[in-house]
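Q: tRNA wybutosine-synthesizing protein 3 homolog, please. Structure only.
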Amino acid sequence: MEKEFGRWKQRCLEKLDVSRKGSVDEAISHVVALVNSREQFFTTSSCSGRSVLIDRVGGQAQAGFPGSSDIQKQDCVWLFVSHQSCKPEDLVSALERSSADAVFKFEPFVLHVQCRQLQDGQLMHSVAINAGFRNSGLTVGKSGKIMMAVRSTHVLEVPLSRNGRVLVDEEYIHFLSQLANQKMEENVRRVHR
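A: Structure for tRNA wybutosine-synthesizing protein 3 homolog:
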């Protein structure tokens, strides 16, 4: 299993980053580098945390508007995404492009780590829990892969429009922006523990 783990790690670290962004988020690059520098671990995916406004369009994803940076994902159009603090005016502007059911989300830091042995995973789990990532967990796959997911529970998911009609006022969007930014600050504190 040791040799197999080494091959998995080498293959994973040599692969191109296929994430939507195409690179590790700068805010957590030091964490990813530290984990990958240890012989008993390697990261398979990560996100530093983000605020997202998506348009859920049902059975088909709509094409982005000409000249926009809308990103399609399954049955969604991404109207806004930020891995840093979000500005209410950016959310208001993005929400104006909604033509379906817009949902504002804050998604906290997540890190998926493959571990060489179960005790390595248990150590990583203990570190994650002590840093405040209380929703973290270990899984052991059929092939013997030991995966550790570092996660927390401080998420936010709020519908803002229905069939393209905005359901809330700008004051509420400002409130949500502040709330998401507070969650991002807590997110950063936990990562630095």
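A: Brief note, in case it's useful. Residues 22 and 76 are 19 Å apart (CA to CA).
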